[in-house]
């Protein structure tokens, strides 16, 4: 499947998942919802790989990277995202995820030793200014609430969302390490989701959260959409793009998904951003777009030649 089509599919799906997560909030604890989501997605992927005749076991060298990548991407990142959306409008969480375009090269520098250009630093400074404007009034209100003896839930949500973006970026960079050891995208996704699910399940048990049955058709609709589309199909597209063009460029998706999410939030969550918030969003997204105008890193020849048939089959089945 062509890379531009993979890009579009991932953008359209992930642009709606931030709102879809709100369908699961309320009756079921956030960590438990993450367990349900990725347990279902992992099971679907393992069954699909078995039907294709794939060998389901991975070597220990591949598995150790998969454990770390899965716990970061499908564990820590998502438990923080679900928890953050209890306190923040989904559109604001989505805008913060646009900052992954800066976290990715920074973390790639630490883990893989890739160089950083001046454009990343300059655009990152503008993006930080945009985020400050975006949350200026809300952070001020949260600080005043804390000083008055309140709990400052907005500030907690902001911190959780930032941790989620950093954890996702760590997972994105580690996809390169995983693919060096195991080329099967769907199988490594299945294992990564399984490890992430186990991590979150342990966290839920340790914190005393109850594993209750999904209570409403609304919850089930969100769970099925997030598991099959938001997890299986979108991540298959995204990880294939990382393999082809590198994680720094694959996170271009982060420029588009916040726009889709903000539009949905205005329509479905009655989100009404003020002037400062609008300027902040424009600065944040504009700086991201500027950073992404940098010349593309040349992908490995093997990755360029790989047609990623598994993703194509999944998308045909989904349609």
From TrEMBL:
Signal peptide limits: none
Membrane-topology descriptor: Multi-pass membrane protein
The entry's keywords: Membrane, Transmembrane, Transmembrane helix
The keyword Glycoprotein is assigned to this record: no
Coiled-coil regions listed in the entry: none
Superkingdom of the source species: Bacteria
EamA domain segment(s): 5-135, 156-290
Residue ranges crossing the lipid bilayer per the database entry: 30-51, 63-81, 87-106, 118-139, 154-176, 185-206, 218-242, 249-268, 274-292
Main location: membrane
A GO term from the CC aspect: membrane
Record InterPro entries: AA-Vitamin_Transporters, EamA_dom, EmrE-like
Family that this chain belongs to: Belongs to the EamA transporter family.
Protein name, UniProt field: EamA family transporter
Organism listed in the record: Pseudoduganella buxea
């Amino acid at each position: 499947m062509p890379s531009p089509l993979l890009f579009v599919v991932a953008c359209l799906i992930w642009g709606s998942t931030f709102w879809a997560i709100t369908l699961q909030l309320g009756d079921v604890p956030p960590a438990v919802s993450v367990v349900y989501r990725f347990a279902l997605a992992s099971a679907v992927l393992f069954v699909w790989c078995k039907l294709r005749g794939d060998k389901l076991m991975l070597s220990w060298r591949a598995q150790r990277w998969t454990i770390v990548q899965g716990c970061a991407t499908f564990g820590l990142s998502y438990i923080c995202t679900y928890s953050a959306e209890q306190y923040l409008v989904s559109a604001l969480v989505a805008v913060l995820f646009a900052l992954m375009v800066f976290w990715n090269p920074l973390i790639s520098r630490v883990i893989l030793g890739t160089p950083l250009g001046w454009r990343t630093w300059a655009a990152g400074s503008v993006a930080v200014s945009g985020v400050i404007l975006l949350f200026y009034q809300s952070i001020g209100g949260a600080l005043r609430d804390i000083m008055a003896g309140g709990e400052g839930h907005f500030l907690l949500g902001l911190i959780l969302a930032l941790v989620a973006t950093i954890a996702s970026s760590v997972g994105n960079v580690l996809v390169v390490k995983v693919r060096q050891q195991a080329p099967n995208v769907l199988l490594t996704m299945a294992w990564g989701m399984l490890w992430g699910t186990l991590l979150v399940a342990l966290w839920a048990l340790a914190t005393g959260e109850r594993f209750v049955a999904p209570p409403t058709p609304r919850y089930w609709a969100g769970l099925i959409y997030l598991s099959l589309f938001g997890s299986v199909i979108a991540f298959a597209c995204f990880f294939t793009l990382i393999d082809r063009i590198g994680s720094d460029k694959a996170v271009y998706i982060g420029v588009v998904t916040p726009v889709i999410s903000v539009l949905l939030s205005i329509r479905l969550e009655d989100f009404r951003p003020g002037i400062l918030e609008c300027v902040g969003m424009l600065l944040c997204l504009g700086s991201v777009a500027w950073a992404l105008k940098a010349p593309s890193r040349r992908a490995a020849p093997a990755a360029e030649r790989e047609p990623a048939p598994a993703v194509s089959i999944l998308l045909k089945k989904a349609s």
